[in-house]
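sorry to bug you again but im stuck and you know this stuff better than me. what follows is a protein written twice so to speak, once as letters and once as structure tokens for the fold. id like you to explain what the token line says about the fold, in plain words if possible. anything you notice is useful, everything is just below.
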Amino acid sequence: MTSATPQPELMTREELQAKLIAKAWQDESFKQELLSNPTAVVAREMGLDNIPGVNIRVVEETPTTYYLVLPAKPTDDTEELSDAELEAVAGGRRRQTPMTFSKASCNI
């Protein structure tokens, strides 16, 4: 009897991020591997051997350093995004810890 080839796990970007964050918070060695070799770790977590043509970067926030990710600009500038696409780009999630900034803290 031959075993079936495992299929890649299908999940949304948000589901994948949640899975990776939860595992990194629980397992320090996984977190270090994710930080040092993110593309290979993400491929493995998705059940893939590799992800050709994809470069993944992982950075860890600190209590005083935040990162803003700008999504890639759509290639067709003539087409407007639907409400669902805008929601996906915006993310729709709030941080659990509030981020407050003042003019003094931002050197404005």
Notes: The radius of gyration is 18 Å. DSSP finds four helices and no strands in the chain.
